[in-house]
Design brief:
- The chain is α+β, with helices and mostly antiparallel strands.
- It has a single domain, classed as 7,8-Dihydro-6-hydroxymethylpterin-pyrophosphokinase HPPK (Alpha-Beta Plaits).
- The strands form two sheets. Strands 1, 2, 3, 4, 5 and 8 form a six-stranded antiparallel beta sheet that branches. Strands 6-7 form a two-stranded antiparallel ribbon.
- A hairpin with a 4-residue loop joins strand 6 and strand 7.
Length: about 160
C-alpha cells in the first residue's frame, strides 16, 4: 500500500481557503491501514473524525466498512480535489468493477462551503450524503452545523464508533 503525495493548496486556485469535507471508507484488506495512508496523503487537512464501523449500504453483499470524515481548509477547486481523491484511491489499489461493491478505499467529496456543482464527473454537495448514516455520524462530529440530530436519526444504516486511527 503506497500513499500519493499530497498537493498543497498553493498549487490550486487562488483565493481564500474554504471548508471542505471528504468521506473515506474501506472494507477490503487492511481497512485501517488504507484509511491511515489516505489521511496521511490528503492536503490541507485540519481535522479527522472518529472511525466508525458501518454496514454496507446498497450494492452486493459484502463485509463491514470502516468510515471516517476529514475536514480540509483548501483553495483547491472541486475538480482538483477530485483528481487528488482518485490518485489516493489508485495508490490504495482501488478497483472499480461493481457499483457500490467492496473496495480497498473510497473517497467522496461530501461538501465544500459555498460550492454547488453538478457535472458528469462530480456533484457537490454529494447527492446522497443526507441519506447515509456512515457519512452523517462522522460529519456531525466535525461539523454539527451541517448535520442535525434528526437527520442523523433518520439516515440509513448502522454505525458503531471504534478505536481511532
Amino acid at each position: 500500500m503506497s500513499s500519493a503525495k499530497p498537493e498543497t493548496a498553493s498549487e490550486g486556485s487562488a483565493g481564500n481557503p474554504i471548508r471542505a469535507f471528504l468521506s473515506l471508507g474501506s472494507n477490503l484488506g487492511d481497512r485501517r491501514g488504507y484509511l491511515q495512508a489516505a489521511v496521511d496523503s490528503i492536503p490541507d487537512l485540519v481535522a479527522v473524525s472518529p472511525v466508525y464501523e458501518t454496514d454496507p449500504v446498497g450494492g452486493p453483499e459484502q463485509g463491514a466498512y470502516l468510515n471516517l470524515v476529514v475536514e480540509l481548509r483548501t483553495t483547491l477547486t472541486p475538480d482538483q480535489l477530485l483528481g487528488i481523491c482518485h490518485r489516493i484511491e489508485t495508490a490504495s489499489e482501488r478497483v472499480r468493477d461493481i457499483r457500490w461493491g467492496a473496495r480497498t478505499l473510497d473517497i467522496d467529496i461530501i461538501w465544500m462551503d459555498g460550492i454547488s456543482q453538478n457535472s458528469p464527473q462530480l456533484t457537490i454537495p454529494h447527492p446522497r450524503w443526507k441519506q447515509r448514516r456512515f457519512v452523517l455520524a462522522p460529519l456531525r462530529d466535525l461539523a454539527p452545523d451541517l448535520v442535525t440530530e434528526q437527520e442523523l436519526h433518520f439516515a440509513e444504516g448502522t454505525v458503531i464508533q471504534v478505536d481511532p486511527l
